[in-house]
From TrEMBL, chains A, B:
The chain crosses the membrane at residues 6-26, 33-52, 58-78. It is found in: Membrane. It comes from Parvularcula lutaonensis. This is SemiSWEET transporter. It comes from the Bacteria. The lineage of its organism: Bacteria, Pseudomonadati, Pseudomonadota, Alphaproteobacteria, Parvularculales. The keyword Cell cycle does not apply. InterPro entries: PQ-loop_rpt (IPR006603), SemiSWEET (IPR047662). Gene3D superfamilies: 1.20.1280.290. Its main location: membrane. Keywords: Membrane, Transmembrane, Transmembrane helix. Pfam families: PQ-loop.
């Protein structure tokens, strides 16, 4: 039973943790300290967890990774936008 | 079998993704765009995954989450350091 609660807390915390990061980026428009490589790798990784969850038919994995995928993709797209803008300004 | 490869790719990508973020923060010393709340929640969440992996006796979960915990804790500690410094400068 205690295992369930650790996995539940882990899933909620690691999923929900991307909400404050997404809100911070949306609010400040700043992605300077954020690694493009990290979010590219992380987003693909979460997509793989999503596929794995679908293969297992595990609804908790599917729901948690769908939310994380949406948030990570949002942060990744804002970071890509800023990286393109910085490159254009550097010309 | 395909499920194994998706879970393996997912674990490697989501774990390894924190390496470029940690290197970026160490190299630039900038944590401005990084959310302190995110890394606090995420670090606790990964610690919960680590405990869960230990309960299951799952070595892949233990190793992956130990690495992620080390990297996330490093980024969190650098973010806390900068947050304290910014507060002191604001006085």
């Amino acid at each position: 039973m205690i295992g369930f609660w650790f996995s539940f807390a882990a899933a909620v915390l690691t999923t929900a943790s991307f909400v404050p990061q997404a809100l911070l980026v949306l609010r400040t428009g700043k992605t300077e300290g954020i690694s493009l490589t990290m979010y590219a790798m992380f987003t693909v990784g979460v997509a793989c967890w999503l596929v794995y969850g679908a293969i297992l038919g595990s609804w908790p994995m599917i729901v948690a990774n769908l939310i994380t995928l949406a948030l990570a993709s949002l942060i990744l797209s804002l970071k890509i936008r800023d990286t393109i803008r910085d490159h254009q300004n550097a010309r």
